[in-house]
Design brief:
There is one protein chain. By secondary structure, the chain is mostly beta strands. The chain is 1% helix and 33% strand. It contains one helix and 44 strands. The protein has a nine-stranded parallel sheet, with no helix packed on it. The longest helix is centred in the middle third of the chain and has 6 residues, at 199-204.
Length: 566
């Protein structure tokens, strides 16, 4: 038999005979009879028993939220015919995405995708081959959504003065702009949402309300909101920033996201408090100076001489030292200064400095670490105990991780009534850890005596990562405040904290405390509304004004114990 050209011998598992000569040929198949093959040009007989097919990808798109982070699951890429591996072949030059042999697509291990729409090309493979490339869309995030904000601005304001920071929900903005209300160019906004005063604003701003339309944009769209800025000359500018210690602020992002923030430089946010950077601390055991005794066995340093300065010592060494200014049995330590020192766990006692109006103790640029991050029955009830007459100053200090009270002020020894207490430019955070044990923590607690005049200003009181129920700033009936101000403080507290400002009704002739221009965060719930500005129910009415809720941008209204909050 002659075979024509074009004959192809079969591969295992199939039979295929092709050729012109087969048009008149008779072929007997060995497997069960005679099979005629005919056709003018070609004839074919084939089967594929035992063979499979390459995969076909069926997924088309995925969507995930903003800021997914590294190695976050996006979804499973589905395909037919049991793929054994996958590959991203195009659209991923920055390594934002990865796909595993299981078909799970995840964000990259070293690069996470910002908000955008990504067009990836993906293939799937098995032992029979590789699928056709499939275009898959991954949408990360969403367009930003901008709320309305209100800010207060003290004028005159220098160029570069911070007005406030706006933020957006939904997707993360990649850019901000002011689209209306700024024809004079008084304000500028950067890509973080920070609004500042321009040089034109420094010379042109007047006491009035300014309404700006701001726009947030990212790759998925844009959105606008209204920012109301009330410029006023009635807010003090003595925020303490000029004399702040060197170093980086502890909590620069603390007030991010607030509808309104204080218009001044905030301690711990815009400038640092505590020990100046670069100070080398010394061992208290090495103190050797007139008027100072050192008990190394009990780790107690006592100041009995006048006009003594303790500078640059680490009282946290060896588990903590006590520092006493004066003593229970011996008067002394007039006009003492403690600066650039670190304390941990143990207490500072200030005792028996005689004479109303005399220079008392100045504590400046120090760090007080209460040494606890949970309830601890061995922790001291308070860190700093004032029982001494005179004019005392406490400023630019950082206090944190406190079990109970920060300040205890009383007159248990030799009429310790303070003639004036100036407490300003300080930061304290995470206090009241022992409230879970039934303790009664306060930031400031007076009892058994009085502060004749209080100047409590420009402090930042923040519960950030711990602490417990804290009553706040208190003057009990046994320890009245005769007058003074509580002003320009920032209170950033959680649901379990509230702030009380008490004026005792029991002392004839008590003057009103002027409580104004304090800014506080409310988180909802709590007692009541988390932050309570109040006087004792039977106390005198007070000067309470211009205190601002940072969450809503509105001002607080005074109410008393048992009253209804606004």
């Amino acid at each position: 038999m002659r075979f024509g050209v074009g004959v192809r011998f079969p591969i295992p598992g199939s039979l295929a005979l092709v050729g012109k000569a087969f048009s008149r040929s008779r072929v007997k198949a060995a497997s069960g009879g005679t099979t005629p093959l005919s056709g003018k040009a070609t004839a074919r007989w084939s089967w594929t028993s035992g063979l499979g097919s390459v995969p076909v990808i069926t997924s088309t798109s995925f969507t995930l939220g903003t800021n997914p982070g590294f190695d976050a699951l996006i979804g499973h890429v589905d395909a037919t015919n049991s793929p054994t591996s996958y590959a991203i072949t195009a659209g991923n030059p920055s390594g934002f995405f990865a796909i595993y042999s299981s078909g799970n697509m995840r964000t990259g291990l070293s690069a996470a995708p910002p908000d955008n729409i990504y067009n990836l090309t993906i293939t799937a493979s098995n032992s029979f081959g590789t699928s056709p490339p499939k275009a898959i869309t991954v949408t990360v995030g969403a367009a930003p959504v901008v709320a309305n904000f209100s800010f207060a601005l003290s004028i005159p304001a220098a160029a570069g003065t911070t007005v406030g920071t706006v933020s957006a929900a939904g997707g993360t903005p990649t850019g901000w702009s002011i689209t209306a209300g700024n024809s004079a160019g008084y304000f500028a906004i950067d890509n973080s949402g920070l609004i500042t005063v321009t040089s034109a604003g420094a010379s042109g701003l007047t006491a009035q309300a300014y309404s700006l339309t701001v726009q947030a944009t990212n790759a998925l769209g844009s959105n606008t909101g209204i920012v109301s800025i009330t410029a006023s000359s009635g807010v003090s500018s003595g925020d303490g920033a000029a004399n702040a210690p060197t170093g980086t602020a502890q909590f620069p992002n603390l007030l991010s996201g607030m509808a309104v923030r204080p218009p001044w430089n905030v301690a711990g946010v815009d400038y640092r408090t505590g020990i100046n950077s670069g100070v080398t601390l010394k061992d208290p055991a090495t103190i050797s100076m007139s008027g100072v005794s050192v008990d190394t066995g009990s780790r107690i340093v006592t100041i009995l001489g006048d006009n003594v300065t303790i500078n640059g010592y680490d009282f946290s060494m060896g588990g903590g030292w006590y520092l006493n200014v004066g003593s229970v049995s011996q008067i002394g330590g007039n006009n003492a200064t403690i600066t650039n020192c670190k304390f941990r766990y143990n207490t500072m006692w200030i005792r028996n400095q005689p004479g109303a109006g005399n220079p008392g103790t100045t504590i400046r640029y120090c760090e007080f670490d209460g040494g606890v991050t949970s309830a601890d029955t061995n922790a001291p009830e308070f860190l700093i105990d004032y029982r001494a007459n005179g004019d005392h100053i406490f400023e630019y200090n950082w206090i944190h991780n406190v079990a109970c009270d920060i300040f205890s002020i009383s007159s248990y020894y030799n009429d310790g009534t303070i003639s004036k207490w100036t407490c300003r430019y300080n930061v304290w955070n995470d206090t009241g850890y022992n409230s879970s044990l039934g303790w009664h923590p306060d930031w400031v607690q007076t009892y058994g005596g009085a502060i004749i005049e209080i100047d409590f200003s420009y402090n930042t009181c923040a519960e950030i990562s711990g602490g417990g129920a804290v009553q706040g700033v208190c003057g009990d009936p046994g320890g009245p405040w005769y007058g003074g101000t509580i002003d320009h403080n920032t209170f950033f507290v959680s649901d379990t904290q509230h702030i009380n400002f008490y004026v005792s009704p029991y002392t004839p002739g008590s003057q009103l405390i002027d409580i104004h221009h304090n800014y506080a965060r409310l988180k909802g719930g709590g007692f009541p509304n988390s932050v309570v500005f109040n006087y004792a129910a039977s106390g005198p009415d007070g000067n309470f004004h211009d205190n601002v809720n940072m969450v809503t941008g509105t001002t607080f209204t005074f109410w008393s114990d048992g009253g209804t909050p606004p």
